[in-house]
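Tutorial, part two.
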Amino acid sequence: MTEFVDGHDITLLESGVEYFPALEGAIEDACREIYLETYIFDDDETGRRIAAALCRAARRGVVVRVLVDGFGGRPFVASLMPVLEAAGVAVQIYRRELGFFSLRRHRLRRLHRKIVAIDGAIAFVGGINVINDIVAGRYDAPRHDYAVRVQGPLLRPIIEAVHRLWWLVSWASLKRRRQRRPWPTVVRDEPAGPLRAAFLTRDNLGHRRDIEDAYLEAIEGAREEIVIASAYFFPGRRFRQALTDAAARGVRVTLLLQGLTDHPVLMHATRALYPYFLARGIRLFEYHRSELHAKVAVVDNAWATVGSSNIDPFSLLLAREANIVVADQGFARELNASLHRAIAHGATELHRDGWRRLPALRRLATWFAYQFVRLAIGLAGYRGKH
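Running the prediction step on this input gives:
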C-alpha cells in the first residue's frame, strides 16, 4: 500500500515551456549542491542552456553532479560531457554503451528517471528529458509531458535515492572520486504545504513493482473516473484486467496514447490491444498535435501521479524509474483539466467500428508488432503475468 506523507508544496509543470525556466532559475539560485540525473541530455539549444547554467554554478563553488544514461545520452558523452567536466562538474554515465555487449539482459536496465535535487531544499521529478521541447520542422507545439517541483518531507527520500545511485555507479565504475565538499547534511524536509504525497522508485533490488502496485491500487479502488496518459503503453495481463474490471463496474476509463512516435514497433504493438479495450468500454485517444511523452494518471480527481514510468515492459520490468504520487483533490483536478485540454485540442478518439474498417495489411502489421514485442519480453527473461 502506498505510504503518503503530509506537508508538501508540489507545483505541476506542463511541458518544457514551464519546466525549463523553473529548472534554470533553481540552478542559478543554488548555493551548495546540485544533483541532476536524466535519460537524455541532448546537445541542442535546451541542453546547452542547462549545461551553461550548471557550469556557472560549478564555477561559483556549487558542487554539481550529473548522471546520464549511457544509451539515451550517447551524443552527450562526445559533446557536452567534456564541457561540463572542464567547468568542474562531476559527470558519470550509467551503463556506458559497449556495442554488442549492450544487448545483454542486465545492460537493458537503463536509467530512465529524471530527478534534479538542489541544496537539499527543492527537487524536480517527472518525465521531461533535457532536450528541445519543440521538434523543429515537425511540430509547432511542444512535446506533451509533465514534471513537478517538490518541497517538504519527501525531499529526504528523493535525495537519499539520488545519493545512493551516484555512489552505486561510482563503485561499479571503480571511479569513486574525492568530493570537493560533503553532500549537504541538512535536508529541508520540514512541512512546506498542505499536500499528501509519496515518492516511488522502480529498480531491480527492493522496489521492483512499487510504481505498478501504486497504479493497480488506485485503479482497483476507482469509483468514477480513470485517466491515463502514457507515451508507451503495453501493459501486462494484471494491469489490463484491472482497467477492464474498472470499466465493467461503471468507471469512466480514458487512455491518452501516442499518435506520433519515435518507436513505431511499440506503437503498432500497442494498437494491437485497441480492440480489446474498445470492446470493453474503454475510451481511446491518440495525440497528434506533437509527440506525447507524458507518464501521468488521475483517478477520481483525488489521486494523481507524475513521473518517468510508462506502462510498458521497459519501465515496469527493466528501467530505473521515479514517480511522485499525490493524494489531493486540487492537484488531481489541475492535472485532470490539463489532460482533458490535451484531448480536446490535440487528440483523435478511436472507435471500434473504425478500427474494423482499417485495411487488413495495417491490422496484420499491428499483429506482427505485438508478437515481436512479446517475443522480446520473453527473450529478456520476463514471462507470466507481465
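Confidence is low (pLDDT under 50) at residues 100-107. In part three we will examine how such features are distributed along the chain.
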